[in-house]
Amino acid sequence: MNHNQEMSAAGRELSQRSEIAAQMRAAGKSYRDIARRLGISARKVEAVLGEIAALRATGHSQSEIGRIVGLPRTTVQDLLRSRASGQLTARKTAAVAGLADMHGMQIDVLAQFLGMSMNHTYVLVAELQQAKLVHPLKQVQPGAKWVYPTRDTAAQYLGWKPREWTPPLMYANHYRAVAQARIMLVGPDPDRWVSERVLRRRAEQQAAGGGRGPVVLSSGLTPAAGRPHVHDARFARRRRRGEFEWWALEVELTRKTVTAMDTALAGAVRALRDSHAAPEPCVGLLYLCRSAAVMDGVNAAAERLPAELSSLDFELSVLDFDDRWGEWLADQKATRARKGLHVTKEAS
Q1: Who contacts 177 (Cβ-Cβ below 8 Å, separation ≥6)?
Q2: Can you give the pTM of this predicted structure?
Q3: Helix, strand, coil share (%) of the chain residues, nearest 5
């Protein structure tokens, strides 16, 4: 054990369009200018910017919107009509797929996930609610409300019928932190992230296939000795030569007892070892921890790993979650400032 501290084609295309369109709009270019520059329709410009829907939501008339964005009133009317029909744009599809994968997200985190302003995200979520793809916003803990898909919507994107899920107060901070971890590690790219929801489904199917009766799994939240462990996620990290390698992720927000931490870490390492027979063979295990005390607990448990696990060839990285998130936010703010984009208040 060495103990030390991109996107699919569709995802890249959407991300690049969003960035260029946002820069041009901030520079005062009209929708028509942006459409010509990118070689796309005004409908696709609206899909990445959402400005027409946001203006309509704040009470602007179609004629006013046309003057603001630089489109004929009839074109604005057509774009608003297509939105009202419930047609899913690329941005909406990315939102719903991400929500299904992550169970749900607080709306400020969803804005970060999509690279959108809060105003545009509220508009998008309202349209998803109107299409009955997500539940009404839910206040769980202090802060932003939660957005989470209906069971039928989640089933459509996951490929199986999941259990009913609502944001749990006890674990709400954990789900928030895992979503933030995804944002700073891989963003919305579905090809570089395997969620806990998918990993749990695999483990349940494998356990059930062994005829062992009711399935009981272990995780960082609920460590269980002698049970298959489910990582918080697996993600693909880019190496220097542009290649990707898979890592397992664990998010630790509070310090566990010695027994619970030993059980959780040993389970996570065994699951990493067993991942070599999975589609994502992992070479490392990343712990993102909230506070130095939590990091100390993980590091101490690593020193107590049994020889069968400590002798495995893998890298264990233990990092401060809040430091990393703060660095990511600062990088985003600096990038937007360099490009002359309007900087909104970030999710924290």
Answers
A1: 251, 253, 288, 290, 321
A2: 0.76
A3: 55, 15, 35
* Token output for 233: 């996620």
Instruction: Match 């295990």 to its residue by tokens.
Output: 285
Closest-CA residue to 252 (of 171, 146, 169) = 171
Does residue 17 or residue 244 have the better pLDDT?
A: 244
Task: Assign 16 a pLDDT band (cuts: 50, 70, 90).
Answer: low
Instruction: Give the domain range for residue 239.
Output: 170-348
pLDDT > 80? residue 161:
yes
In Å, what is the CA distance from 264 to each residue of 125, 219, 220, 241? 36, 7, 5, 33
What band does 22 get if pLDDT is binned at 50, 70 and 90? confident
Residue 142 covered by a domain: no
Q: Are 272 and 282 in contact (CB under 8 A)?
A: yes
Q: Are the C-beta atoms of residues 124 and 89 closer than 8 Å to each other?
A: no
- When pLDDT is averaged across residues 215-222 and rounded to a whole number, the result is 90
Phi, psi angles (nearest 5°) of residue 18: -60, -45
Query: What is the three-class DSSP state of 122?
Result: helix
Whether 177 contacts 290, CB under 8 Å:
yes
Distance CA 245, CA 235 (A): 8
Residue with token string 């005062």 = 28
186-to-76, 121, 210, 247 alpha-carbon distances in Å: 35, 20, 34, 12
Question: Which residues partner with 247 through β-bridges?
Answer: 235, 284
In a domain, 44, yes or no: no
In 3D space, the residue among 336, 344, 338, 347 whose CA is nearest the CA of residue 18 turns out to be 336
The whole-angstrom separation of Cα 196 and Cα 311 is: 26
Q: Is residue 216 part of a domain?
A: yes
Specify the 3-state DSSP secondary structure of 284: strand
- Residue 188 in any domain: the answer is yes
Residues 6+ apart with CB under 8 A from 56: 62, 65, 80
What is the total count of domains within the chain? Answer: 1
- With beta carbons less than 8 A apart as the criterion, state whether 1 and 314 touch: yes
